[in-house]
Structures are given as C-alpha cells and as structure tokens.
Specification:
The protein is about 20% helix and about 45% strand. The chain is of the alpha+beta class. It is built from one helix and nine strands. A five-stranded mixed β-sheet has the order 2-9-8-4-5, with no helix packed on it. Strands 1, 3, 6 and 7 form a four-stranded antiparallel β-sheet that branches.
Length: about 150
C-alpha cells in the first residue's frame, strides 16, 4: 500500500521541479520590444510599409514583454530639398518595465507629411532598449510612407 504513495511522492517532486524550472525561465526571459504606430484620431494602426495620406496624425508607443529596460525611440523622415537627406523628427528616452509600473512609453502626436510636389516621404521609427541583465538588448524598427 505504500507504493501508490511513493509514486504520488515522485510525481509531486517532478511537478515541483517543473514548476521551479518554469519560474526560473520566466524570470530570465529575453527582452523584446514592440513598436506600435496609431492614428490617435481614428484609432487605426499604421502598419510597416503602409502608405498613408499626407497630413495623417500618428503616435508611437514602445512596449516590452514585461522586462525592465531603459532606452529610446527616434522618428525620422526625409528632409526637404536642400536639407539633410534625413531629419530627426522626435527622440523619446524612456524607462519601462514592471519596476517602474509601466511596460509602455508613448510619444507626442506627430503629423506625417509628404515632401513638396508629388514626392512620397519615408517615415522611419526605431527603438532600442537595454535590459538590466547581462547581454540583454532589444531593437525594433518600422517604416511607413506619406503620399501627397
């Protein structure tokens, strides 16, 4: 009659080992960042490689997968003729993650304009974040186009 107890005891130990391993891996999860671009007026998402009409309002948010990190996101666009080929539109430094109570950083509202005439403007957003653990880095980018 002690055999079923021994089997249950081994099963219980195995379950505890699996739970401990899962907990350890969850806390060591790799850092990932996601960029979300939305039109705050309509709520529509602007996806990578999308083409939007000139004058489209947009807002950038960067989110982690629940891992603490410090970083920044930058928004650039093509410069007008006679200016540098690419110009910095916005730079947003952030600290995000459970330790600071938010997994998202959101920038101000911007307007995606086209270039003068009939030229499409190339809008690029990149985000980088440095985690607290050794070799914990993440980077993402997205690009969309404003047409006249």
């Amino acid at each position: 009659m002690w055999r079923p107890v021994a089997v249950l005891g081994l099963a219980g130990v195995a379950a505890l080992l699996v739970l401990a391993a899962t907990t350890a891996f969850a806390s060591d999860e790799g850092l990932r960042v996601t960029i979300s671009v939305r039109n705050p007026i309509t709520g529509e998402r602007i996806r990578g490689e999308a083409s939007v009409p000139a004058g489209t309002t947009f807002q950038v948010s960067v989110t982690t997968n629940g891992v603490d990190c410090v970083g920044q996101f930058v928004v650039s666009a093509l410069g007008a003729p006679g200016n540098p080929p690419s110009v910095l539109v916005a730079s947003v430094p952030f600290v995000i993650g459970p330790a600071v109570g938010s997994n998202t950083a959101t920038g101000t509202t911007l307007v995606a304009n086209a270039l003068a005439g009939t030229q499409v403007n190339d809008w690029k957003i990149s985000a980088s974040c440095n985690g607290a653990r050794r070799e914990q880095f993440a980077h993402r980018e997205i690009e969309f186009f404003a047409r006249p």
